[in-house]
Each structure stands twice: as structure tokens, then as C-alpha cells.
Amino acid sequence: MNLPNPAELISHMAADLNAHLHKRGITDPRFIGIRTGGVWVAQALLKTLGSEAALGTLDVSFYRDDFSQNGLHPQVRPSELPFEIEGQHLVLIDDVLMSGRTIRAALNELFDYGRPASVTLVCLLDLDAGELPIRPNVVGATLSLADHERVKLTGPEPLGLEMQNLSTASAAL
């Protein structure tokens, strides 16, 4: 499978996001990237939009419903939100939407900070494999992968996409 070019996706996403925000009358959204890939996508998106808006970051590790199964991840870092959440229009950005569990965790964390006026979900890739009924408002591309395939975002500059074959990786063990 040929993977799409992230730079081209970001360009289309910027136009789609502008149209979405304009249609909803949102003029001053607050941008939040989910660590790590979502932050990279958010940075690229803000650069393409020509925006110098502050970027909040979320690390949703403690909010995951599978945290007790996975244990403490050594890369857990605090979330940083340099603006109020209460009453704000948020643009929540992630790299890959797969099960929907990361987005659910992000929403839970955001609501612990306050009740936003709205949340617009932006994802570089939607793998259309949702376990939860969560869909992005703005998406770069939708892909259907085999059960043994995964896509990984590389970056931050330049952003890239790598296909990973889980059956090859497990066979090598």
C-alpha cells in the first residue's frame, strides 16, 4: 500500500479546518495536540495556517482505560494547557485515529479542566477501525488496513508515515 504524503494531507486539512471553523462561526479557537504525534501534526498544521496561536499539549496516558493493563509508560509527561478550557472552542489534534480510546481519554482530561464551548477533532489519518463511535471533523485520509498492519507517524520534521507489518515483527522474535 502506498501511504499518502503527510505534507499534502496537512495542506488539505488546513483548508478543510478553515472552512469548518468559518461555517461554525469560530474565529479564535484554541489548539491542542495529543502527545506525541498529534503535537507534531498540530505544529505542522499551525505553520501551514500561518498561525502563531499557543499550542496546548495533552498526555492522556493516565486517562486511558487500558492504563492498568499497559502499566506506567516511561515517556509520560504532564499536559500543558497555556489557556483556559472553560467556554473555549477547542481544536483537538491527533495523528492516527484507530480505536477512539485516545480521543475518549483526551476528552475526559479536557473536561477535568473545564467545559469547552465545542471540540473540533482533527486527525491526520482515520484507520476506520473504531471501537468507539468517534469520527474526526477534519481528516487527512481514511485508510483500511489489514489486521497485521499499522501505520506510524515519524517526525517531527519532516513528517513521514511508515507502514509496519506486525506479523513480520512477531516472526522475527
* Count of domains: 1
Largest sheet: 5 strands, parallel
CATH second-level architecture: 3-Layer(aba) Sandwich
Q: Give the overall shape.
A: globular
Low-confidence stretches: none
The number of strands is 7
**Which range best describes the helical content: under 10%, 10-25%, 25-40%, 40-55%, 55-70% or over 70%?**
25-40%
The separation of the N and C termini measures 24 Å
The count of helical stretches stands at: 5
Element order, helices and strands? HEHEHEHEEEEH
Gyration radius (Cα, Å) is 16 Å
Task: Round the mean pLDDT to the nearest integer and report it.
Answer: 90
User: The CATH topology is what?
Assistant: Rossmann fold
Describe this structure in words.
This protein is an alpha/beta fold. It has one domain (6-142): Rossmann fold (3-Layer(aba) Sandwich). It is built from five helices and seven strands, in the order αβαβαβαββββα. The strands form two sheets. Strands 2-1-3-4-5 form a five-stranded parallel sheet, sandwiched between helices. The protein has a two-stranded antiparallel ribbon with strand order 6-7. Helix 1 (6-24) crosses helix 2. 34% of the residues are buried.
